Amino acid sequence: MAKNSLNPISFFGQKERHSPSFGGNIWQSQNCTKNYYASSYAPKASWHKKNIQKEYFFLRFKQSSSNHLYKDIEGGSTYRECNRKYVVKAAPGPSFESESPAFDSKNILESVKNFINVFFKLISPYAMIAAALSITSASLLAVEKLSDISPQFFIGLLQGLIPNLFMGVYMAGLNQLCDIEIDKINKPHLPLASGEISFTTGVIIIASSFIVSLWLGSIVGSWPSLWALISFCVIWTGYSVNVPLLRWKRHPALAAMCIIATWGFIFPIGYFLHIQTFVFKRSAVFSRPVVFSTIFMSFFSLVIALFKDIPDIEGDQAFGVQSFSASLGQKRVFWICVSLLETAYGVALLMGATSSCLWSKIITVLGHAILALVLFYRAKSINLKSKASIASFFMFIWKLLYAEYFLVPLVR
Hints:
By secondary structure, the chain is mainly α. It has helices at residues 8-13, 26-38, 46-65, 78-82, 96-123, 125-140, 151-178, 180-186, 191-194, 199-220, 223-240, 252-279, 288-307, 313-318, 324-328, 330-353, 358-380, 387-407, and strands at 69-72, 86-89.
């Protein structure tokens, strides 16, 4: 080949005496390009210069427009240094298309959980549980033999239970709607007082529950159950609604009568008669267990009526609600409640001791004796200056009530 004839490959294969040693980065590739044009062969190498420039700008563009990693493949000659090859290693980024459904599902699940939590705070679950146990216990009072525990019994139990639970939602929500300002002081955690549920949403919930409750109660066709449902509704509407001649909760005696009427008479008598007359088609005979249940639950409901105002004394005084706690003082009302409960357990012990059924005598005497001792021990440790301690003891009273609903059907 002639000396003036230049082969670009052979040219880059030679080691130039004045060329610096080259590294493996793009800046060095640029220097190779400059050295190439500085040589005497520039007129013949213009074609190769254009190719190198294109490759250089292409690589610079790829480097600046992505987060890719480049792996340098080393070579031994000057040509290989200037004409390096690169392997792209793409770093995986977040896939929004694949994560979007999961993200939405998570949000939906959290929203449902939050709604359930707020709804439970609205309905006062401890009272709802007590109502369900009360209806179940009263229904079991109508059971005279094991064969009475049948599908017919359970269907009748649900016919009385479900409408009452919807009415319980109505009553709990109505009470909070009428007490928003008081609850901001006494119970700011409640959803209407805290703003977790708007006033309009609260109205929709309670109106829907009221309509569903009366509709279900009417289609069942049981007069004792419907009587209990309507009585429950009328009493607690009068207890809560702030209109002339109503809002009976402002008067301690009327407030206590509302609670005694509900837990002492309406629930035990109404749902006993529902099972006895509507389900079993028997005559309405008030047996010994029914009489005991009415007396005992009257004591217990009086205690609940008195005790429920002990932790709310601050808000009641601010809004002129003259409860027994505001009039007599927290300590005196507290020990009145404990004394009434111990009296109720004394009546239960007497009732069990006079039973002609041995297994009923053992269970009722032993069970009520244990509950009476636990109550006395717990009452000694109460701190009346602590609102949290008082609230905890109030929940303890409801647990005692739950336990009683398991013992009452065993009294024979």
